[in-house]
Amino acid sequence: MVKKEMIAMLLAGGQGSRLGVFTSKVAKPAVSFGSKYRIIDFPLSNCINSGVDTVGVLTQYQPLRLNTHIGIGIPWDLDRNIGGVTVLPPYEKSANSEWYTGTANAIYQNMDYMESFNPEYVLILSGDHIYKMDYEVMLDFHKQNGAEVTIAVMPVPMEEAKRFGIMITDKDRKIVDFEEKPANPRSNLASMGIYIFNWKTLKEALLTNAEQPGLDFGKHVIPYCHAKGAPLYAYEFNGYWKDVGTLNSYWEANMELIDIVPEFNLYEEYWKIYTRSEILPPQYLASDSVVERSIIGEGSEIYGKVYNSVIGCGVTIGAGTVVRDSIVMNETHIGSNCELYKAIIAENVEINDDVKLGVGEEAENETDPHIYNNGIVAVGEKSVIPRGVSVGKNSVIFGVTSAEDYGNGALPSGKTLIKAGDK
User: Fold this and answer.
1) Interval 164-177 mean pLDDT
2) Does the pLDDT of residue 77 top 70, yes or no?
3) What is the predicted pLDDT for the residue at 421?
4) Which pLDDT score, from 0 to 100, does residue 38 have?
5) pLDDT band for position 16 (cuts 50, 70, 90)
6) Is the dihedral of CA 365, 326, 71, 215 positive or negative?
7) What is the 3-class SS of the chain, one letter each residue?
8) Whose CB has fewer CB within 10 Å in the chain, the N or C terminal residue?
9) Other CB atoms closer than 10 Å to residue 131's CB: what's the count?
10) Strands 333-334 and 350-351
11) pTM here?
12) pLDDT beyond 90 at 86
């Protein structure tokens, strides 16, 4: 029997529907971030930097790209004979085939995997946040307090507290009560969805509550442990933490990487962010190209001008083209004499010459104003935009479009252009 002190279970099954077309064909944790990374690289790198070498990654929605990206875990040094990284999709049981129905149900369905390591502690993580955290420090806190459950919390402004699960603690940070999205919060310590459980405690809570529909940590497991009188503690985290769950927060988090003094630094020697890198040539900047305050991925060729932008790997930006305040993901090709302002362009997109994105006044998006807003233009993966068209703000394009799709050569602000078959 192999014994591991602490193993991690990383929940990476979420669809991330508030990212609109960017997660229609790929799970949110596999979405590109910061030029060469994917969102899941951050919690995985935290694990290896914290000395946690056994990670189960629970996938579900559109898992192909995530599975390919993780592979056997070589980039994170997680290709171990004992432990390492294991991708855990839902599988067919003899009686019935079951999707993961809630965060804790997904963990419950992988009881055998956890049991095989007979750990003292289980660390539960979510695959869609951008942050650096030393889980070992959190484990020390857990042990010092004799906790059975430790929940990582982050102080948030009081007026925002009603959007989170809030922990109420005594002076020693012991949790005395908690409230899910309270109208009148009694504390500003928001749960980050990061938990350390004693394995015995977790196992009992999961087995006892297994029949609960949509078994969830916040709704079932934590309240059960609390009601039983298990000592619950709140571990306060004060570093950078970003939930990139909306297009605007995703855009902001990318833009923060290029601040003069970035709050979230990708270049720290002692806390590396690991990822699976393709073998690509270095980037090429043509003699009359201009690049200011931007990140440019490997294998990209820049012939135009790039300001305040995050450009992925293998991207081409043609001569005379100006890209501002935008995110362009891997292998996208942008022609000559284009203008892009505040656009998010997915992978493998083809933008032909003389295209303008993000022009004119803002108008509310006609189909999903809660997703496409703040003036951002969104272009889904493998889309094609024909030559010479202009596209307004808060608009979305997905699919292979042709000149006929743009009345008078324009797509006004707030319009949704999704070609059949790309839903």
Assistant:
1) 93
2) no
3) 60
4) 87
5) low
6) negative
7) CCCCCEEEEEECCCCCHHHHHHHCCCCHHHCEECCCEECCHHHHHHHHHCCCCEEEEECCCCCHHHHHHHCCCHHHCCCCCCCEEEEECCCECCCCECCCCCHHHHHHCCHHHHHCCCCCEEEEEECCEEECCCHHHHHHHHHHCCCCEEEEEEECCHHHHHHCEEEEECCCCEEEEEEECCCCCCCCEEEEEEEEEEHHHHHHHHHHCCCCCCCCHHHHHHHHHHHCCCCEEEEECCCCEEECCCHHHHHHHHHHCCCCCCCCCCCCCCCCCCCCCCCCCCCEECCCCEEECCEECCCCEECCEEECCEECCCCEECCCCEEECCEECCCCEECCCCEEECEEECCCCEECCCCEEEECCCCCCCCCCCCCCCCCEEECCCCEECCCCEEECCCEEECECCHHHCHHHEECCCCEEECCCCC
8) N
9) 18
10) parallel
11) 0.88
12) no
Buried b (16+ CB within 10 A) or exposed e, 224-252: bbbeeebbbbbbebeeebbbbbbbbbbbe
The answer to whether 31 and 246 have CB atoms below 8 angstroms apart is no
Is 54:63 a contact under the CB 8 Å cutoff? no
* Dist. CA 182–CA 29, nearest whole Å: 28
- Residue 81 CB-density burial (10 A; 0-12 exposed, 13-18 middle, 19+ buried): exposed
Q: Give the pLDDT confidence score for residue 170 in this predicted structure.
A: 94
Spatial neighbors of 194 by CB under 8 A, at least 6 apart, are 123, 124, 125, 126, 133, 138, 151, 152
Closest CA to 148 of 228, 212, 215, 220: 228
Q: What is the pLDDT of residues 306-352, one digit of tens each?
A: 999 999 999 999 999 999 999 999 999 999 999 999 999 999 999 99
Residue showing tokens 């502690």: 121
Give the mean pLDDT of 115-123.
Answer: 94
Predicted pLDDT of residue 96: 46
Among the listed residues 61, 66, 59, 58, the one whose alpha carbon sits nearest the alpha carbon of residue 17: 61
pLDDT at 280: 82
Question: In 104-125, which positions are buried (b, 16+ CB within 10 angstroms) versus exposed (e)?
Answer: bbbbbbbeebbeebebebbbbb
Average pLDDT, the chain: 88
Q: 6 Cβ partners below 8 Å, 6+ apart? A: 52, 119, 120, 121, 122, 123, 135, 139, 196
Q: What is the mean pLDDT of residues 102-118?
A: 88
